[in-house]
C-alpha cells in the first residue's frame, strides 16, 4: 500500500499559492516589474518619501515607459494590450514599494491615457497616446476640486464657447503629476453637461501649484491646477465625452489598480513583520515565538491572502468582460481596509523601530490613509455596495 500524498506546507509569502494560478505571460510581467521595482526603486523610496518629492519624474516616466507599464491594458497607439490581471500584477509590485509610485502609473495610464483612449478623436489619440505610453509625455487628470470631491457633479469649473474656441475657468485640487504634466485632462461643466478637454500645460492662463507639507503619499507630486481664461481651440474637446459618467468610468479603471496595488502594500508590511519577528529577541527568544505575535501574523497573512483572492477574482471577471463597477467598489472597500489592518499591526509589532524609515511599515501605513480617500472614499464605496445589494440609493 502506497503512502498517502502529503501536500507541501504553505509558503508563508504566498499562503494560498495564488501565484501558481497565473499564466506564464502574467508571471513574466510580475517578475519583470518586481525585479525593476526592487532594484531601481526600493533602495531610494524612503529618501524620496522623507524629502517629500520625486527628484526626477521625467526620468522615472521614461523608465516606466521602457518597462511598458503606462497604459499597458489599453490597445494600440504603443500600448501593450495586456490583460487586466497582468496590469493588476504590475500595480501590486509597484505599490509593494510605495503607493506614490503606483499612483504615478495609475494616473498616467488609467486616468489620463484612458480618457484619451475612450473619448478622444483619432487625431488626439495619435498625438498623445504613443508619447505617453513611451513616457515621453506626462499627463494628469483634473476632476476633483477644493469644494467638490465625493460629489464631482457639483464642480464649478466651467467651459464656455467663444466663437470657435473654448474658454475654461476653475480650480482643480489634489491632482497627481499636475506640476510635471505636459497635458491635463480637465473636466468642466458646459451648457451641454460635463465634458472633457485636453489642456496642454503651457497654455496661457494655466498654472499648476505643487502641494507641500503632506504627511502621506510624499513620494508623489500632488498639485492644484488653476485655469483663468484658458483659451483652447475647438478640437481640444474630447468628442466622445458626455456627462459625469465619462470621468467616472476612468476613475473605475484607476480604482481597479488600487484593488491590486494595496495587496502589494499589505504584502510588504507582512513580510517586514515576519522577518522582524524572527530576528527580534526579547525575554530570551525571538518574538515570533510569542502567542500574541503569532496571532498578529496569522491575521496579517489572512488579510493579505484574502485581499489577493479578491483582486484576482475581480481581474478574471474584468478579463471576461463581466466586471461591474460595484465589483471594483467591493474590491477597493475591502482590500484597502485589509491593507490598513496589516500595516497597523506590522507597525505595532515593530515597536519603536516601526516609526522610522529604516522599515517600510509606517510609510505604507500613512500612504494607505490617502489611498482610502482618493478614487472614492470608503464611505462612497460602502454606499455603492449598499445600493447594489438593496436596490436603493442612499447618495441623496
UniProtKB/TrEMBL annotation:
Q: Which reaction does it catalyse?
A: glutaryl-CoA + oxidized [electron-transfer flavoprotein] + 2 H(+) = (2E)-butenoyl-CoA + reduced [electron-transfer flavoprotein] + CO2
Keyword Transferase: yes or no? Answer: no
Q: Which Pfam families match?
A: Acyl-CoA_dh_1, Acyl-CoA_dh_M, Acyl-CoA_dh_N
Q: Which organism is it from?
A: Streptomonospora nanhaiensis
Q: What is this protein called?
A: glutaryl-CoA dehydrogenase (ETF)
The EC code for this enzyme is 1.3.8.6
- Ranges that cross the membrane: none
Per the similarity annotation, which family is this? Answer: Belongs to the acyl-CoA dehydrogenase family.
| PROSITE patterns from the UniProt entry | ACYL_COA_DH_1
Acyl-CoA oxidase/dehydrogenase middle domain: residues covered? 140-230
Q: Which cofactor does it need?
A: FAD
Q: Where is the Acyl-CoA dehydrogenase/oxidase C-terminal domain?
A: 243-389
